[in-house]
Structure formats: C-alpha cells, structure tokens
Design goal:
Blueprint lengths: L2 H17 L4 E13 L4 H9 L8 E13 L2 E15 L10 E19 L3 E19 L4 E6 L8 E14 L2 E11 L1 E3 L2 E4 L7 E3 L2 E16 L2
Antiparallel strand pairs: 1-2, 1-12, 2-3, 3-4, 4-5, 5-6, 5-7, 6-10, 7-8, 8-12, 9-11
C-alpha cells in the first residue's frame, strides 16, 4: 500500500462514519472550473525540445459535495479532472504532433465556515486524496505515453490542497470564487512506446483560482 492508498484510507475512516449517521441528509453541491498557475518545468522543457507548445494555465473542472457534520465543520469529497492538450509550435506541414495530459483526482474535503449569511459566505478548507495521471506525446522522435495509475478504484499518487472560498447569492444558490494552493507531484511513471527518459516528474503544484456554482440543501441518501 503506497502513500496515496494510506492517505485515502485514513480520509475514508474519518469521513465515512460522519456522513453515515443519517440515511437521508442535505448536502452542498459545487460545480466548478478553474485555472492553475502550476508550471511543470521538466515537462515544458521537453515539450519545447519536441517543438510543441508549453503547458501554461492548466485548466480543470469537477464537482464537490459536502455535508454539515457539525456547526463549524462541513465534510465531503471533491472530484477534479485535468485534461490539457498542446499542439505544435506554428503550423506543421504533413505532421500531426501533439501532447496530452490527463489526470483524475479525488480528495476528502473539510470546510470551516468563517462567515455565513443568506446572501454571503466565506470559508476555509483543506483536502487530501490521490491522483491517476497519463501523459501522451507524439512528435518527430517520440510516440507513446507515461502513466501513473492504479486499478480497482485506488489512486497512484497523493494530492493535498488548502485555501478559501467566498460567495454571493441567496439561501440555496450561490456563485463563488475560490483561491487555493495544491501540492500535486507525479513520478514513478510506467513508460510505453518510444518515450525517452527526460521527464521523470510532472509537478503540477501551484496556486489556483476557480469559479463555482453552489447548490445548498440538495437531498442525498445512503442505503
């Protein structure tokens, strides 16, 4: 069992009993999209060497659901999808070179309300979980992929995040902004095809900003 497995197992051990206290309970659902300021230097250096664009302003989207576990504590889970495509620098003639980064992450989330009214809120949060990542490249000298994934619903590498959000709305619907910092580093890749050894680490650590649509009081149930 690697570090990602341990982190997720500990998160489930802590969060699941809280949520399972009631068979039916209201949750806060968030749908979000944003940009990360991460700069995967080793990866970008290799992309440049292969005459491909660099990965800048890495975009992501996903969903989150949290449950009011106590007066000053909401807990739940967040799913995030990162999928970044880059093309050749300029326009190639008769070539179809490109690269793609594809990452799925799941985190257990704890949110602490700082201010909460019917019209406005501020909260702080922390999260821990894991990621599965694939990087594919096709260039003049390479055609293959780097992969760090686990089967059976596990995750291969740990991910940590913290920050805060602020929102405006009324009662059950809010539009929110969130700023945060994420520690997200992937290594130990399985290589396939004709990919060289220049990229040993893809470091997606960095600050981010995202916009969320929030729906309060969404009914959820447990069988």
């Amino acid at each position: 069992m690697n570090r990602a497995h341990i982190l997720i197992a500990l998160s489930l051990t802590f969060f699941f009993p809280i949520v399972s206290l009631a068979k039916e309970f209201p949750v806060q659902a968030r749908l979000f999209a944003g940009n990360s300021a991460a700069d995967p230097k080793d990866l970008n250096d290799e992309l440049t060497a292969q005459s491909l664009d660099q990965m800048k302003k890495i975009t992501f989207f996903g969903a989150e659901a949290t449950y009011v576990a106590a007066r000053y504590l909401n807990v739940g889970f967040r799913y995030t999808k990162r999928m970044v495509d880059v093309d050749e620098v300029g326009s190639g003639i008769g070539t179809d070179y490109s690269a793609r980064l594809d990452q799925d992450s799941v985190m257990a989330i704890a949110r602490l309300p700082v201010i909460r009214t019917k019209f406005f809120f501020i909260d702080a949060f922390g999260g821990v979980g894991g990621t599965n990542t694939t990087f594919k490249i096709k260039s003049a000298t390479q055609d293959g992929e780097l992969s760090k994934r686990e089967a059976n619903d596990w995750f291969a590498r740990p991910v940590l995040a913290y920050g805060g959000s602020f929102g405006l709305g009324y009662d059950k619907f809010f539009i929110a902004g969130e700023v945060g910092m994420e520690n997200n580093k992937v290594d130990g890749f399985k290589r396939s095809g004709t990919v060289n050894n220049n990229v040993e680490v893809i470091d997606l650590t960095g600050s981010y900003f995202m916009i969320s649509l929030i729906f309060n009081g969404v009914p959820a149930s447990r069988k």
